[in-house]
Amino acid sequence: MKLHAEVCYAECQLQRAALTFLQDENMVSFIKGGIKVRNSYLIYKELHALIKSHNCLKGASHVHLEGGVSFGIGAFNLTLSLFPPRILKVLEFAGFSGDKDYGLSLLHDGATGVNLRSMLSAMLLLCYYTFLTFILGRTGEGEVEEAERLLKPFRLRYPRGAIFLFFAGRTEEIKGNIDEAVALFEDGCKAQQAWKQFHHMCYWELMWCFTYKRAWKMAYFYADLLSQESRWSKAMYVYMKAAYLSMLPDDEDRPFGENEVQLFRQVPTFKQKIAGKSPPTEKFAIRKARRYKAACPHKLPVPVLEMMYMWNGFSMISKRPELTEGMLHTLVEAESTLVESLENEFSVDDRCVIHLLKGLCLKNQGLLQAAEESFRKVFSSEKKIRYDHYLVPNTLVELSLLYIDQGRREEAIRLLHKAKHNYKEYSMESRTQFRIHAALAKLKANTSEEEDTHL
Questions:
Q1: What is the pTM of this model?
Q2: What sign does the CA torsion over 277, 282, 287, 290 have?
Q3: For the chain, which terminal residue's Cβ has fewer other Cβ atoms within 10 angstroms, N or C?
C-alpha cells in the first residue's frame, strides 16, 4: 500500500509542478517547479529499481503498481529523449536521463497490460505517434501503424468514444485520407457535449483538413469558431481567419462582412504569455501580421500555406498527388502575382517563401532535381532577406531531408550542421532545432560535432 501511495505522490508532484509553472512567472517559481519534477523523477527511479529487484513481494495489486511505475519512467524517458543535446546535457547534470526506445517499450508494456494506468500509457503513446513526431518534422513512417495497432482494441471496446474517434481521425489525416478524417472529427464532436475543449481540438484539425483541400471558407469557419470559443491562442485564430480571407479573390464576398486587413491589425492585441513567454506560433503570427500596420499594406502572398508548413502540413498531403497539385497551383499563381507587382521591401522574402513551399510540393511529386533548384533559390537570396530569417535554416533542413531520401548521407549531415550552428534567433527556432536533432538522430550522426558548414 505504501508503494502505491508513493506512485500517487510522484504523480501529484508532477501536477503541483505544472501548477507552479502556470500560477506565477518568476524564476523562483520555475526553480520550485523544477525541484518538484526532479523529486517525482527520483521517486519513480527508486520504485522502478525496487520492483525489478528480487526482494520485491508481489501482491494482488502488484500489476497496478508496475503499471504506474512503467508509465512514469516511460514518460520521463520518452519526453527527455526528444530534447536536443544542448538541453539534455543540462538535464543530465540535474540528474535526468532519457532513452527513447526504453521509454517506448515501458509505455507499450503499460498500454497493452490491464492496470489502472494502461489508458494513460496508451494516450501518451497516441499523442507521441500522431502529434509529437509531426511537430518534430517526421513524416510518420511506422508511427501511423503503431497508432492504429494501439487504437484497435479501444475502438472495438468504445466505438463511440470521443477521444478514440479523435485519434482515429488524426491517423486518417496523417495517411492523407482527408475526407475520412473529417467524418471522424465530426463524429468525435457529436459523441459528447460536456467537454467543449475537446470540440476545440477537433475544430483545429478540421480547420487544417479543409486547408489541405483548399476549401478556404470552410477552414475560415472553424478558425472563427475557435476565435470565439477557445482561449488557447486567440492571436493565432484571428491570424488564421485573416489568412484564409486573404486567399480568396479580391472580388469575392467575405463571410460575416469581415476584412482581412482589419483582422491582421487585431492580431497583436491578442498576444498572451504562458509561463512568462508567448507561444512561438503566436509570436510568428504577430510578426507576419506587422506589415498590415501600414496605411497601404503589402499583402502576404500565401500566409495559410506558410503557417501550414510550420505545422508540417505538407507531409500530410504528400500521399495525395491531387492535393499537392492544388497547393502547387496556388503557389504558382501567387508567384505570378509577385512578378507582376512593383518591387518593395518584402519582395525578396515573399519570393523565398514561395520557393521553399514550391520545393516541398515538387519533392512530394518526386521531382527531386526541380525541388533542389527551388530550395537553392532561397540560399542565393540569403543576404537580401530582410525579415523572414527562418527561411534559410529551414530550407537547409528540407534540402538535407531530400538528400536523405536520395541516400546522400554525408551531404545531408553537413547541411544539418550548417543549419544548427550558423543561424540563431529566428522565428520558430526551437522547432527547427528539434527537427535538426531528429534528423541527425535518424542518421545516427554525432549531434554535437562541428563540421564544415559551407554549402
A1: 0.88
A2: negative
A3: N
Q: How many C-beta atoms lie closer than 10 Å to residue 24's C-beta?
A: 15
CA distance 412 to 436: 11
Q: What is the pLDDT of residue 321?
A: 96
Mean pLDDT on 155-171: 94
* Residues 341-383 pLDDT 10s: 999 999 999 999 999 999 999 999 999 999 999 999 999 999 9
CA dihedral (326, 329, 335, 336) in degrees, to 10, reads -150
Per-residue pLDDT of 202-251, as tens digits, reads 999 999 999 999 999 999 999 999 999 998 899 999 999 999 999 999 88
What are all long-range contacts of 288-295, with beta carbons under 8 Å and residues at least 24 apart?
A: 288/239, 289/239, 289/242, 289/264, 289/265, 291/346, 292/261, 292/264, 292/265, 293/265
Residues 276 and 68: their CA atoms lie apart, in Å, by 32
Q: 137 — alpha (psi -120 to 50), left (phi > 0) or beta?
A: left
Instruction: Assign 274 to helix, strand or coil.
Output: strand
Distance CA 13, CA 36 (A): 6
Measured CA distances, 289 to 269, 313, 348, 393 (Å): 11, 21, 17, 22
Higher pLDDT, 276 or 224: 224
Centre a 10 Å sphere on the Cβ of residue 107 and count the other Cβ atoms it contains.
Answer: 25
- Amino acid letter for position 386: R
* Rounded distance between C-alpha atoms, residue 364 and residue 73, angstroms: 38
CA distance 81 to 255: 45
Half-sphere exposure of 38 (CA within 13 A, CB side): 13
Q: What is the per-residue pLDDT for 422?
A: 94
> Residue 133, Cα to own-chain centre: how many angstroms?
8
pLDDT at 449 over 50: no
